[in-house]
Structures are given as C-alpha cells and as structure tokens.
Amino acid sequence: MIAPALYPLNASLPAPVPSQELRDRLATRRSAAAQALTAPGPTEAELDQILTLAARTPDHGKLFPWRFVVLGPVTRAEIAEKLAALAENLDKPAKAQAVLAKLTAAPVTVLVVSAPVPDAKPIWEQQLSAGAVCMNLEHAAGAFGYSSSWITDWYSYDPQAVALFGLTEGETVAGFIHIGTLNEPALERPRPDMAAKVTRLP
Length: 202
Known about the structure:
Oligomer: single chain
Strand order of the largest sheet: 1-2-4-3
Strand content: 5-15%
Low-confidence stretches: none
Shape: globular
Distance between the termini: 50 Å
Order of helices and strands: HHEHHHEHEHEH
Number of helices: 8
Structural class: alpha+beta
C-alpha cells in the first residue's frame, strides 16, 4: 500500500528553512555502481514512503506524466534471461549481456516510465517531469540511508526489450532506479567547472 500524501489538499505547506544537513547531502550525492548495490534495501513500508516523496516533483500542470513499476527479484531474473537471448542479435552481444548484471544485482529496482499525456503540454516538457521524478527518487532513497543508481542501458531503447517491461504505445523508459547498500564508500568523481557552466546576465 502506497503511503498517503503528507498534507491534505490545499493545506498550507511549511516555508523552506535553512538546512545544513540538506546542503551536506546534496554536496555529497553520488550515484552508486548498480552492480555494487547489495542488501539491505528498503522495506516495503520504506519504499512506499520513498515513492510518495519521489512523486512530489514538478508534474507539469498536474498531468503526472509518469508512473512507477516496482520490479521484484523474480521478475528481474526472468526478464534478464529473455534480454540475454535478445542480446545475441546485437552488434556486441557479450557486452550487451554483461550489463544485465546491473538489472539483477540490487535488492530493489524501480522502473520510472515516462507516460506523456497526448495533446496536453509539449511532450519534451512532460519527459523532463519524468526525469525529475528519477532524481527525486534518488534523493528520497538517500534520505532513508540507501544508495542508488539511475540506469538505462540498451534494453531501455530496444523495442522488443521494452515490451518485456509492459510499456505501452507512447511510453518510454525514463530510468531504472536501483536501490540498496554499498559495502564501501563511493569515491568522488570529476565535477564540472562551474565557471564554464554558469552565465550571469545583468
């Protein structure tokens, strides 16, 4: 059962307050290697709360143009076996099969599906909303003390592969969010030169 909303409709929400803890979390946010994620993962109750928090994203005019699919270990193993067979027909089958370990390693995997509403807002902007959900899902998992990895890989784009995950016409994979625990600390990686990425206009 998914956790209820934290506040009733039209309730006054608390104003943002300075939080050094949140700044520290954002400053050290780091994607984990999907293959390195092990148990423990979120409990069912924790995952319900994580999904509820993830859904608090810019949703483009209340369209909510995305949905979640929680993939259990049995389902992932079965799909990975079918994907391995599909990989035989790709240019580099061994490499395509090797990345399937990312799909089966973590204790918990949430597929975020971009499900744009036709003839509403621009599709690209609705897809951005699905991307925001993926990022918020990672932040929510981190708030419960778990590491996570946002992955796509070839099976996110192959039509036969996508069909195995139950996507319908017009839907696309926004990301597989793998959640679990790292046995060793994540290492810092290169970050952008902010002076080259920020433009300030008068």
